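anyone else get weird line breaks when pasting these?? whatever heres mine. first is seq + tokens for prot A
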Amino acid sequence: MGQILEFEVAFPTEEKLTVEQYLAGSSRQMILNVAASFLGFKNQKSKFNDNKEFLGMYFRTENNEFANQVYDRIKGLEKKGIQIGIINTYSSLRLFEYYFSKPEEPETQTQAELEINLFKAYLALNSEFTEKQAVAFPSAQESDEELNIPMVMFCMQYPVSDKSNYDIKQIWATQMIKAIYLFSFLESHDKTKPLLAKFLAYFNCPTWQDYLKSLLPLTIPAVKNEREAHIDIVVEDGDNFERSCAFIEKLIILENDELDQNDFLTTRAKPFYKVKDGIYRVIYNLFVVEKIFKGVYFLLRDVNKSLPKAQKIKDIRSFYGGEFSEKILCYKVMESIYSSKCIRFSGKELADMKIDAAPDYYIRKGKNILLVESKDFLIAANKKMSFDFKIYEEEFGRVLDYEELPDGKIKAKAVMQLINSIRRVLKNEFSADTDYHYKEIFIYPILLTHDHQYNTPGFNELIDFWFQDELLELAKEGLFIHHIKPLSVVNIDSLIYNQVGLANEINLHDVLKNYQENKKIKKKKKRNFKSQKEYDRYLEEYKQMRMSKLIPFSVFIDRYFHENGLWKLPPLLDLVAPELFKEEYEKREATKIKNSTRR
């Protein structure tokens, strides 16, 4: 774990001013340009992770002495073993949002002065971030002792992990596949046809294929961006100029928009801003790519509010999670990776068998049983950004463990539902499949999530902690729990992206077995320490070891597949080409048939 360069660290003898004070009399356009450029840095392997490289790029020759003083201070800290970073996504987004809504004002600062003052303003935003993050450590100490280290990691990272720890190409691929599934669902479901029609009318697109054809070219530069700078979308002159501009302008942030700073909801919804006619700048590449699929739900939610009462979908979040995320996405993905030589039932098939409170998906391959609970949920943005364990414990507990109802009854959620399913399986009361001996089977409980924000170190440990607590209750009932694996939090994108290898090379339950083996912690041996220094060194090594075990499944499977040569490109083009470019695809296929006939 590195440390963000704070104002107080860089300038220990200087009084910190407000961002507004530093940037008074500056060019709004220049500040927005800088913020967009910082947000254009790669989140992985950026050349600007090298502080010398960044400072050399940012400061002009005139400010060399100032830049060298900052660099010397950074080097002094790094000699003590503290890794220092300057740029972080939170501060870059805050800088953009802070200045976007401000009007232009007379420029009184020289370019050289603004360069220094903007740098100081940025470090002030870094300090703002670390002040918010400081809540994490004391709040995490309120957790069970076993969870202290995982919860420090989780609370510190969760509010920003999804905006920092991702693979943009993987996000693009999985967003694309999920979007095809989503629009096909909206088109085929009677209840959602009016919703899709109103959505397409808003964007002036006759079909959803046309919508994606208009959107996808806007996402490609956000994925490539080899320059690590701001990205401009330039609409070429021609017959489609006005139509193309009108489409993009549905996705641009306006100066009079009220900016919701909780998790940057406004810039997520509108990830472009207009530079001038025909030129639009990307605010943040991740938010642009997430418009392919993730952003569609929020647009649909807003469109749903404007539908006539008879066509409006009641409780659209629950409908979307149940009818699409579970019954379409979860089912199709599980079918694709366990296609044959196994016993499998979807939640709908189990419900049709009159099996109450069944898992969302059940698979048995040999002696291995997978119990899947699919949960497509979101935490309120203001609570997500709290860095507070107590808030997270309450919110995730209510959504994923159990909920206390007003009448005093308990409503089981994912953890309790998995426990109830395990109880049935161990007692041979799961009527859909009883051809096994309970002592010979291995059970893999899976919480299937639908958003990569839960791929945060420590999250799996929290959910499994609750699961292990409930598992002890099954032991008290006399049930054989020795072959029940720890609960694994699996993001559905990991299965989509690695589906070829999971279908043809290695079973998901084998990957989960390796994952849980990798997470195991050796018990601390009793030792006699000769000095406080020796004890401190041992404690630090133990903490580092514990933190290394907090790897999310999504990271583990990606590394595992690449290291073992198991990864292959998901059948993305096979899925996209027929659906997205239907006319062109059919013409091409017809040409192939003609050519083969001629031969």
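and prot B, same format (seq, then tokens)
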Amino acid sequence: MTKTTTDREQREAAAAQGEAEGAAERLTTAPAESDGPTGIGVLGWLRWMWRQLTSMRVALILLFLLSLAAIPGSLIPQNGQNQFKVETWKAQHTTVAPIYEKLQLFDVYSSVWFSAIYILLFVSLAGCIVPRTWQFVGVLRAAPPAAPRNLTRMPVYAAWRTDADAEAVNTAAHRLLRGRRFRAHLAGGAVAAEKGYLREVGNLVFHLSLFALLGGFAWASLASGTGGKLLVEGDGYSNTITQLDDFTGTRFYGSDDLDPFYVKLNSFTSKFQNNGSQIGSARQFTAGVEYYEGSDPSKLKQGKIEVNHPLEIGGSKVYLIGHGYAPVIEVRNAAGEVVYSGATPFLPQDGNLTSTGVIKVSDYGEKDGKKTQLGLSGFFLPTSPAAFDPNLGPRSLFPGDADPALVLNAYAGDLGTDSGLPQNIYQLNTKNLTQLQRDGEAAKAKLKPNQVWELPDGYGTVTFKGYKQWASFNVSHRPGNGIALAGGVAAIAGLIGSLFIQRRRIWVRAVALPDGGTLVELAGLGRSESAKIAEELAALAVDLQDDAPALDDEPDEPDALDEPDEGGTTEADEASAPEESAVPADQNSKE
């Protein structure tokens, strides 16, 4: 019996010790071992990422990134705006040009990384706007919040006694508040009123406008197209893919969608400041054109194109983006035949329009019994100096045509134009050419208008007959610009509304007193810091005196429009006040 009891006690003691050890293990801070999954799971991570994406912080970061991403587009020439500048830039920066191409810096606004930023911003705004809109609709459908139990704790408060009936006072207050365009509700012996809902409307309009702005940009990137064309004075072109110098289309806008029209450059006027500290600064660029839409020349119209003042034809706009000079040159071969004659555009290289260019005479003919081609390269100087700097070479002193001159070098041989391979019309490949020599030195000449240069070795003559001006145009079709502009204007209007419209609430309670008479209480609460709520409450108290005149022997009540010393409600006030019926404050909200 004793042994049995002892064994039982030993088993009980061992069990107790095991429970104690288990309890000790449960008190440890080490993570519990489990074969099951840990963490918030895939769904939890997706929910967390969605909340982060739709938060105010991430939206501002994306907006900032979008602004930063647009900077390269304004500093680096873009293919969709000016193909000539892009090619010139690449020729001047041969080292970094391939890197820029891989980074899509010549097509910033259609690049993958730029599109990713504004698509994420688009989704972020959508994730904020939709729930906020439904919440705001719910607020509009609900009655204003009922009056708190203790109105004396409101930031602005007024009270007095009157002999008027309590129900009549409440009815009069309801009428006055409705007359002041408050949303007022009479129930439970008190009037609850609220005003300033346009503040939240402005907030939503601002976000919707950003949504429209991004949508306009997105539509423009999908359904827009741009082309470039250089025209010398007196030349014209039809807006077709074969006559454009370059064209960049999009997914929903190709070469078959080009607007049909014809444009001819009749004249070009350029003026520069010729004195003072800003000498050489541009003052006027005007292209005088004639054009017609469609294919009917009888509908010819006159127009002009200036910087930032494009010509709108159909659904396209023609912008003036550049200008320069085109020397008019006549070349005669050894037999005295005219083998080349016309204006050749030279491309500006600096602010004074020092321009470089080449003339390729493919049909020169034969020289010494074999087929020969002639190449000329050089500079056009609108205002040439008396002598060239030996280090800088030919440079213009002024962008205007005060003293024009043409500096040329001559080459003979094979231009490579018959090979069928494409060539840059502004560059001369001298691989199979030999520079003409005179007295053991490279043959070159500085010509004034109407001067003739006799080429060495009987290759003929080159006559500088004068010059014309050329203009470079960008033909743009962007259907989303109107949407983006409307979104920008609406965003400004919504922002003004959200900043200057004040959301406020007013409660009026008239209660019959046990000793006779009625106690009238007014209280106001502004959703933002503003003195307007006190002014409105004072005006309402004055108007209510007609229906509830104050008695002369006032009891010890708080003074009219008394503002608490601590300037706000206490925790007890918040406990007694009704829940806010406006859109709830949320850390992920864009407000």
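btw re prot B: Residues 148 and 574 are 9 Å apart (CA to CA). DSSP finds eleven helices and 24 strands in the chain.
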